[in-house]
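## retry 2 of 3
previous attempt timed out at serialization; input unchanged, resubmitting
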Amino acid sequence: MTRPQQPEPSAVVAATAMFVEVLVVGIGFLTGLGVLAVAVAGPDNTRRLAPVADTSLAASAALAAAYALGILVDRAADTALTTVRRRLRARSFPAPADYAQAQLKLADFPSLTARVDYARSRLRVCRGWVLNSILLTLATDLALWRFPVEHRSLLLATTTALGVLASAGFYLSWHTITATGYRKLAAQTAPAAAPTVPSQPPAPAPQTP
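## retry succeeded, writing output
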């Protein structure tokens, strides 16, 4: 009996998911840049420029910029983590050809492909927010230093600690998702074990008359 084919994931759904991932990363980075700009501008200049930012044109430009920045941040984070990613892949695929062969086999199983795509979606968000957390922490610390706030030392210490925890958390999440993804891919695409043939006893030597 032939195995029923499972429906392949819609290309529109996959494209929408990719757009959302990039936008989530880009909005975080754009927010960090905004906080950094406010910190550099200072209190007086920020009050003067606030009305300009509160317009629909600025919101539209920010959305477009967030998407563009999301692409850049995703590529930058992937490049920064290349060495670690290759080390994790080598644990499950000793040779690059083994990984390429597993990717080809994965195309024959749409249900597994959907799960891999979901894992990659979380992976992209986590690796992008490693950089976002660093930028937001530095920008917020600078803003707290520039603006007149009470309990500045306590706020700086709290912001820095939360930023370090967030960066470490996103990195560990990326590390776990990546290692688990390679390990599952290797197990799911491994060739079936060949049946073992019981060894036959050696034939008796012909007796000479």
